[in-house]
Amino acid sequence: RGMVAAARAEAPAAPVVLAGFSMAGQLCGQVASTLVWDVPVAVMSPSDSAAAVFVDGPLSKSVAWPALGEGGRAKLAELLEQFGLRGLAPPPTKRRILVATRRDGIVPPAAFDRVAAAWQVAPRWLEGGHVSALIFGGAALRSAVLEVLPRSL
Questions:
Q1: Phi/psi at 17 (nearest 5 deg)?
Q2: How far apart are CA 5 and CA 35, in angstroms?
Q3: How many CB atoms within 10 Å of residue 79?
Q4: Closest by Cα among 107, 79, 102, 143 to 23
Q5: What is the pTM of this model?
Q6: Cα distance between the two ends of the chain
């Protein structure tokens, strides 16, 4: 949010777009949803909540559950849910694009459906998964960024 404000102050006429992949996409979505300005956003493979990845998903195997104590899984899930996209209003901009992956092994595709429903957009589906989107899907994210940019550029 601070970077967006600084960019707008430094060059008010320059376009500002939030874009990111995976966790960066989720963070861009969170920022876009909490701004009062019309800042376009294009995200690829964001989870609606980090809980879907770190509590329920494959990365849950990397969490030291005993270190979190009794009920640690539920406590972590509750904490992560507080900071996800689920509880936020859609970004104030109508220029928002979600690129999702059908065979994602990191972020469950149902999480993309929840983001799409919250943002009132149709996801643009890539047939691959999380890693293949990172390696081969950059063009889809770049195209989304170009599409949300103002036409006057």
A1: -130, 140
A2: 9
A3: 12
A4: 107
A5: 0.89
A6: 23
Tokens of 107: 């972020």
The structure tokens listed for 108 are: 């469950």
Q: How many residues comprise the chain?
A: 153
CA dist 8 and 13 (Å) reads: 8
- At residue 45, does pLDDT exceed 90? yes
38-58 burial: b if 16+ Cβ within 10 Å, else e: ebbbbbbbbbbbbbbbbbebe
pLDDT at 150: 81
Q: Are 77 and 55 in contact (CB under 8 A)?
A: yes
> Which amino acid is present at 137?
G
In the chain, % of residues over pLDDT 90:
90
